[in-house]
Queue: 4 jobs
Job 1
Amino acid sequence: MKLLDLFITSSIPVGKILVITGIGFYLALDRVNILNQDARKQLNNIVFYVFSPSLVASSLAETITYESLVKMWFMPLNVVLTFIIGSFLGWLVIKITKPPYHLRGIIVGCCAAGNLGNMPLIIIPAICNEKGSPFGDPETCEKYGLGYVALSMAIGSICIWTYVYNLMRVLARESPIIIGTSSTVPLIPTKVIQVEEQFGTWSKIKQRVCSATENINLGTIFAPSTIAALIALGVGLIPTLRKLLIGNTAPLRVIEDSVSLLGEGTIPLLTLIIGGNLLKGLRGSGMHKSVILGVVVVRYVLLPIIGVLIVQGAHQLGLITSEPLYQFVLLLQYVVPPAMNLGTITQLFGSGESECSVILFWSYALASVSLTLWPTFFMWLVA
């Protein structure tokens, strides 16, 4: 397949995303006022509690079996690596740009959490169905491609609502307490320091563990999407449950069909919401350009380069198969823009919504370039 054909193939799904995002943007304009702030907030709650869990559950339960999970064992590790490496790079952005304290969680979240849901779900079928796709038969390509994306989306959802959600919450609440102009309140009280000095290293470790445990909110860790992913894994991996719920001859297939029907509304709804949220980004919120540039460089330059090194290294070591489509999905996980769920998280927090919209606006504005150039290179690399 020629390079120009690869470029055209990778640009089609980006065009679809831009069209739907543009509709959401238009509906949020003041003169239209259909997708206003209150409407987006209510829709976000519906996505959080209903649509997103349904999409994760239906996609995962249909495609995951014990055999496929063994074959794709590296994919969960790859997703976790994108979050860990992104968090580290986000921390570097904070150190370099020195933003206000309330923005630190948003910056780390945007660098760590990629859009592993609706972006690949739109990109993979579009590429598979393009004439001259390097991944073979369109029907087979789409079937296996959506299976890879389903697992990627489920693991990504768990990471967002356990790791990123709580990381953003903790970073947003942490700030130095300053009294007057010269005196500060120490982060660790003097009594604690004296006790730690008296009882040694074990006391320090115990103190840190207890402090971290107190800050963990189990209610947020087990978010609806996380619970849905765990249930779906159980259905997919337990043959009895799978026969009852999955397939055209399953006795309880009406449950799976209903969940799948709800899940189908997630992608267009999330894309419309992000289009509405981008209006805030266009109007601006005093966000420093260095912060936006830092996030864009992390997501569209550093992470893809690191992803190529990791995936190609894993292939050379025999950790992953030589199947081009599987490698392509692994590489795609490093180049997607920040997750749309970050907008939902900031709205649930009730703070940082405007700043997050600015970062998302510029990230998705530049995604049309990144999601065309990098997938073109990825297809050439794996094919």
Job 2
Amino acid sequence: MGIAYPEEVPRLSEDIIELIEKYNVSAACFLPPPRSIDLILQLSWLDIGVFAALTALTALSLIIYLENTHYLLKKVSCLIKVKTLVWISAAPTVIGIVSCIGLWVPRAIMFVNMMAATYFGVCFYLLLLVIVEAYGGQEAMLERLDSVTIAISTGPCCCCCPCLPRMKMTRRKFKIFVMGSFQVAFLRPVIYFLGIVLWTNGLYDPDDLSSTSIFLWLNLFLGVSTILGLWPTSILFREAKQYMTDGNLKAKFALFQVILILSSLQNSILDILSGAGHVSCSPPYSSKTRAQLMNNQLLIIEMFLVGMFTRVSYRKQDDRPGYRALDTVESQGKEERKCQQNILTN
């Protein structure tokens, strides 16, 4: 015997039933998202054509990513760099694929958002590694920054901390920077998993924005975590772009910011518009489900375009080493100085 979950047997209140009868409103406007099979049976031929076109666009985005991965494996000599570039360049493709899944399976939207947010959280840490590897590794970066002071009053915390003093980068401070980026990769999946667990018990309601809402406080905590994770990456990027002019760091960082805005801010704006009644109900979609549908459709197109720019930005031959030990650098410098002294002595 199967179990009938609450969302499978919706119970409309008397007020809603009266509203439906009085204004001839479709009952679908008050129901949860439809099942996939019900959705397909209710779609028009135009809707099916749009869904098929977006699915083909997602498949094309995947093909472009695989082709770019093949190029990186052949043209980047350092294995550590290859792994980092392959994983971080997959961000638009992964978000496009999960958005396509949400397109065809509307009831899985919460799980789809968790998958996309989890992967993009890992990209915070990967972007930091890309910047470090542009220097030639951690030791080479610390050597380069040893003689300079770096500004930490940069975005996204520059508005609240404009008077922070400059500082010198040390090994200990760099570990703090790494932990700042890594905490996003750790906390994002934990927060979303906690949200799903609370949602199954009726305690996590995305429509509840009151001061006692668990949804609101978890998302505020997630926002603070995201800002703190982006801050150390922005600090290192600001210094790296002055030295690294041939690694397309500016383009890579700009694309990362674009993905962050599109995957986070756009969904929030559509949810707010839906809650304010500016997104109309269109059976078989309620207002909220239609806003999620619009977000998935836009994300598929946007991530395809971002994937094209990502291919251009990451498609660069690189024969430099990814990591260079500091003791090796110092020994080479000592050997060069000895050679120069011997030449002067002779």
Job 3
Amino acid sequence: MLMKLGVNSGFSATRNCMLASPAVFRRQEFLIRCLGGYSSYQKGIQGVKSMAGPTSEADSENILRAITPTLDQSKHKGQAGKIAVIGGCREYTGAPYFAAISALKIGADLSHVFCTKDAAPVIKSYSPEIIVHPILEESYSVGDEDQASISSKVLAEVDKWMERFDCLVVGPGLGRDPFLLDCVSRIMKHARESSVPIVVDGDGLFLVTNCLDLVSDYPLAVLTPNVNEYKRLIQKVLNCEVNDEDSHGQLLSLAEQIGGVTILRKGKSDLITDGKTVKSVSIYGSPRRCGGQGDILSGSVAVFISWARKLRAAPDWDTSISPKNPTILGCVAGSTLLRKAASLAFEDKKRSTLTTDIIEYLGRSLEDICPVN
């Protein structure tokens, strides 16, 4: 069997090795060299990489300028975006606030938060700008006999608002209560039926990882995993470990297997794919990794996706802008703006930089890249 691997080290063996963990990959590579099959094995790797194509740095600032709408006196409330965040429970009230307020700071007109009754007063106290809906329930407050009726009431309440939203952000501060997650699953299904884009972050990714059908084959779904969330997705979907030696190919495979979703893999460089192309955003950045930056990103991406969808349908859209997919464009713009705001905040605050500091630099960062005048 070992000799067979050395002689016939073609595409299938190469792909299996590339989907393995880095440690396994190195051991297999050493074994193949010892058996004299390294030359053909290396050609196999090059063949796979050439088919996938190289990761290219996104034209970040030009994309951000292209999809940011102009401001003029003819606009009315709501045209610049209406965003809803599904999240917020007893333990986590900051995350949904960060996502919702970031959307407003970038330029969305309205920002809603659908949260539990315990979380609502706290989130309301953070800012009067956010519309808070205390409709979600957790298991501890719902008897088994009442779960079906309460779940239906929750869905009916969200349904009254759904057609107004340009994008949903699912997951910030959501928690992992089983009944709460079941209600959110039903909300996501209804959003799909209404063709509303969904940005999934935080505990929303925990939900999706365990129920891929919620986003599978939905091109308006965006997943924004950090390193640990990405690891769980890879293990669940591809049944292997993260392979950073072929991050491009593995990310493509993940998006393809889930089926048409867009994935924004957060890291030193953010990698973004819809299963067809991979774009990298490495511009700007900060060494300060305070918690909550992912919530800023999810709220930002939601706004830019809503803008990209509207502007791409306009007759004066610049057709030279690439890529064409509005979810990719939204991810590139959101990633770019967060990175710039984080870098400016770090220049000012250094080690004491907090998420609230970064939020305060979102407006200035957008103005620097895309001036109002």
Job 4
Amino acid sequence: MASLEERGEVGVAAAPGSSGVVGVALEAVPGGAGLSGIPEEAVLRREAPGTDTDAPPKKRARQQEGEAGKLEERLYSVLCCTVCLDLPKASVYQCTNGHLMCAGCFIHLLADSRLKEEQATCPNCRCEISKSLCCRNLAVEKAVSELPSDCPYCVKQFPRSSLERHQGEECQDRVTQCKYVRIGCPWQGPYHELPAHEAECCHPGKTGQELMGILSEMDQQHRRELGLYSSIFNLLCFEKIGFTEVQFRPYRTDDFITRLYYETPRFTVLNQTWVLKARVNDSERNPNLSCKRTLSFQLILKSKLSAALECHFLLLKGPYDDVKIKPVIQHHVFSNDSNETEYVPLPISDSVECNKLLAAKNINLRLFIFQIQK
């Protein structure tokens, strides 16, 4: 009887002593391609108990002499993202045909499809992709985490899973600051040079007057942060406070060039009916062509008023979202003649967070309104 190797098949089985893995014979693709496009030579062959271990060595899968690249380099080309062609740094998603995408590129593709009003497709095979159709590939994520990567400081190689800890705690060439940075020392350099610098640093010998000028500049930033928190605490003392979870749903304008915008259903807060609207890049003509993306929103009062209504309001992330929003307090005096606020930026941290919101089916946030009593 012909062996598996003679029939063009490669045996893959668990090593003795391992659990939960069953030996499977994988038929090689004509032309020498194996599983998922990996060459047969790159498949590590292990013999399970009971298989023929006396086959001649020349019949075993092995790398031919002169083949370029180490195993790690070949795995880089197999496991890289099909969009950016780089190894994923976090989550890895795959389409229904198995093509890999890093989390950033996957979210960016979904956001682009939302802006263009098109179905998102895999850039490799053009099959449809979405959060429901695609899934994470945990095996690839673990494989990538074990691949070696160069430390940018000492240029030594470490597994990607331990590289972050090495850069932050162990590397002697990592960039660090002087411990006197709080009194204005600007020095930055390799960690192994830190003791010599601190021994000669001139900042501890500065006069009190010189240090006061440095510290006053640093205190200004802290005052701005404390001012924001103090304002929020003051608002919590108001007599009338209302909040609700709001859901922005995507819509299209009826213009000749349709644009994406978001709007919430009507909701009631403080016995008044409201609506929130949002738009991308302040209604830029083609926001899909821009790498920098922002969202702005406005609050609209739908109820009729008998007297002016002065309010503070702010948007925060919802209870089930992970978007990063920095709170900003807005102010407006509502009346029957002025029932809409100006469009104000949604205080998300960067374009990556904006793409997360655009890629989602709906945007879920939490709105707080504080009524100022006359």
